[in-house]
Amino acid sequence: DPELVAKGAKVFKKCKACHKVGEGAKNSTGPILNGIFGATAGMVEGFKYSKPMLAAGEDGLVWDEEALAAFLTKPRKFMKGTKMSFAGLRKERDIEAVVSYLRSFD
Ligand code: HEM
Question: Which residues contact 65 (CB under 8 A, 6 or more apart)?
Answer without folding.
Answer: 99
